[in-house]
Design goal:
Elements (H helix, E strand, L loop, with lengths): L1 E5 L2 E5 L17 E3 L2 E3 L6 H14 L7 E2 L2 E5 L3 E3 L2 E3 L3 E5 L18 E5 L5 H14 L4 E6 L4 E8 L2 E9 L3 E2 L9 E2 L7
């Protein structure tokens, strides 16, 4: 079974009775959930730009994707059990980080993941992906919605996600797990 997105809602499209081999998948099938490849639309220009702006806020130019005790990566495949997820941004505490082999994903769950939402992927990111992050024991997840100009911060405790805070439009942000860093939410939005 090959899962895809249609009109912003998850849909299933049969390929065969079993999961398709990786080489038979179209290039946009970067994620796998429960052993089943998932087709997602590529991020749009707004989502890409917002993710780059957030990375620059958390890790200003010249710091080589390092922010204090953190290592941040963009669009790096993360393998959690039989799931393969590609967070828009992910971070590991430096003491836990191990650089993956070239061309390989990471098998170590991130301490923080961020998804930049679009109309086409929001239900996937909020539903299936948040569940997979929880099962993989990712500590914090941020959901950034450029269209609504919001940042939602979640903490995984025990067996569920707790919404810690929501920021809208602009204003000072000090968000877990990067509470030591103060920045303005308006830095993420174009013009």
């Amino acid at each position: 079974m090959l899962r895809g997105m249609s009109d912003g809602k998850p849909s299933a499209r049969a390929v065969s009775g079993e999961a398709a081999p990786r080489e038979a998948l179209p290039p946009q099938a970067e994620e796998v959930l429960g052993g089943t490849p998932v087709l997602l639309p590529p991020p749009g220009p707004i989502q890409i730009q917002t993710g780059l702006r957030l990375l620059e806020v958390l890790c200003p130019p010249g710091q080589e994707k390092d922010v204090g005790a953190w290592v941040l990566r963009r669009n790096l495949p993360v393998h959690l059990a039989e799931d393969r997820l590609v967070p828009d941004l992910a971070g590991w505490r430096r003491e836990r980080w191990k650089e993956p082999e070239a061309g390989e994903g990471v098998t170590l769950a991130p301490d923080w993941a961020c998804e930049v939402l679009s109309d086409e992927t929001e239900s996937w990111d909020r539903g299936h992906k948040m569940l997979a992050y929880g099962l993989g024991r990712v500590g914090h997840v941020w959901l950034v919605h450029p269209g609504m100009r919001t940042l939602e911060v979640y903490l995984f405790e025990g067996f569920s996600w707790s919404l810690l805070d929501v920021w809208e439009e602009q204003g000072p942000v000090k968000a877990a797990p990067f509470e030591a860093l103060a920045w303005d939410l308006s830095a993420l939005w174009a013009g």
